[in-house]
Specification:
Strand order of the largest sheet: 1-23-24-21-26-27
Largest sheet: 6 strands, antiparallel
Number of strands: 27
Structural class: mainly beta
Mean pLDDT: 85
CATH architecture of the largest domain: Distorted Sandwich
CATH topology of the largest domain: Coagulation Factor XIII, Chain A, domain 1
Number of helices: 5
Radius of gyration: 23 Å
Number of domains: 3
Strand content: 35-45%
């Protein structure tokens, strides 16, 4: 055990950063978010159907997937992987299982024509977007189904074009996503885009199927219609939820952008978004525009003016050390969400004093770099319900006095410390 701890500390000293994941779950996660993978599209459908609470899909294919495999694959929409692929995906994945190679995601192999689909323009140059829950180097390949493919039959390797229409290694990373330019193939009608991400630092590989409908090869120059006037709700001292009537487009809307003045303050694939990091007791005006796959931008919606609340901070962090010893300590952290809305995919950031080194963590993934610690929830506690709490903990070694953090921010909002 001493040798293992020493090895971990040597890595920390060499790299200047430590990543800790407990529970045996793979550290890297990700999935295609545009065009949306089946799991991500059904996750969004489930959120829209629930009004922001528990996932309640309404799309028939998504409803059947939940009936067959439960809701956990939707909460873990970014975890469709095989840990031992090692470049052998074609050898170890059987026909009919490309969209969900692991048993957990088998329901997303259903051969049906009513999965949520993204409208695309043939031959268009677009920006592909892939979630980066935990970044790692590797190569992405995107294949499209052959002409004449029948979506009501199980997807086989032979149904894919033999060469990927797009291949990229280590694409740009920003705001939690990989994104890169790609030219779409010359296709028409309904197809499946199969994406394979093979890590170069591990045998682990990730898979996704994106259901798409290709329009004609004529360039799309028609912008979406203007979104409806936003309606504000769940107003707190630091955030506000906005909902609006959806835009229409000849091929389909790919993104909504929420503006405050000339600044984009939120983006969403659905007609709802939460704007965060606002100042209490302050008046803001927001407007929304829609963008299609060709980059055409709609006229702006009318604006809505909102005054944030003046109550206490939306979050409180309780930091305790139930155990300390010469050269180390155990810390427990409790986050209380005092707002009237859930905090999705929470991230807690605090100063990590010099001389302290993270050695293990539980109920979270913690990254330490440049004197800052960032904790993210595990799959089962990634969201904090309105008025709810989450707890996690970690062990650390220290070469000096054990000092407590004095500043915590939750998803960019400063938290109170009792």
């Amino acid at each position: 055990m001493r040798k293992r701890i020493a090895a971990l500390l040597l890595v920390a000293a060499t790299t200047g950063a430590v990543l800790v994941q407990t529970g045996g779950t793979a550290l890297a996660h990700g999935s295609m978010v545009w065009p949306a993978s089946r799991t991500y599209a059904c996750y969004l459908d489930g959120r829209a159907g629930s009004g922001g609470g528990d996932l309640q899909p309404t799309n028939p294919a998504c409803v059947q997937a939940v009936a067959l495999g439960g809701k956990q694959p939707l909460w873990d929409w970014y975890g469709n992987l095989l840990s031992n692929a090692g470049g052998r995906s074609r050898d170890i994945i059987a026909d009919g299982h490309l969209c969900g190679p692991a048993t957990k995601y088998d329901a997303y192999n259903q051969a049906r024509a009513d999965w949520p689909a993204t409208q695309l323009t043939a031959n268009a140059t677009v920006t592909l977007r892939y979630n980066a829950w935990a970044p790692h180097p590797g190569t992405w390949e995107q294949y499209v189904t052959k002409d004449g493919f029948d979506v009501t039959k199980p997807l086989k390797w032979s149904d894919l074009e033999p060469a990927p229409f797009d291949k990229v290694t280590n694409p740009p990373l920003g705001n939690g996503e990989y994104s890169w330019q790609a030219k779409l193939p010359n296709k028409s009608g309904r197809h499946i885009i199969f994406s394979l991400w093979q890590r170069s630092d591990s045998p682990e590989a990730f898979y996704s199927c994106s259901d798409v409908v290709f329009g004609g090869g004529v360039p799309d120059t028609q912008p979406p219609t203007a979104p409806g006037t936003p309606v504000a709700s769940s107003v707190t001292g630091s955030s506000v939820r906005l909902d609006w009537a959806a835009s229409t487009d000849n091929f389909g809307v790919s993104e909504y952008r929420v503006y405050r003045g000339d600044q984009v303050v939120a983006t969403s694939a659905t007609n709802s978004a939460t704007v965060r990091s606002l100042t209490a007791n302050t008046e803001y005006t927001f407007r929304v525009v829609a963008v299609d796959a060709a980059g055409n931008v709609s006229p702006s919606s009318a604006g809505v003016t909102v005054r944030t609340g003046s109550g206490p901070g939306a979050c409180t962090v309780t930091y305790t050390k139930p155990s300390t010893w010469n050269g180390g300590f155990t810390a427990n952290v409790k986050i209380a969400n005092g707002s009237a809305e859930a905090v999705r995919s929470w991230q807690l950031v605090w100063d990590f004093p010099s001389g302290q080194q993270l050695s293990s963590a539980w109920s979270s993934t913690i990254t330490v770099a440049d004197g800052k610690a960032t904790a993210k929830g595990a799959s089962y506690n990634a969201d904090i319900s309105a008025g709810g709490t989450v707890e996690f903990g970690f062990n650390a070694t220290t070469s000096g006095a054990v000092t407590d953090p004095v500043n915590f921010t939750l998803s960019g909002v400063s938290c109170a410390i009792p």
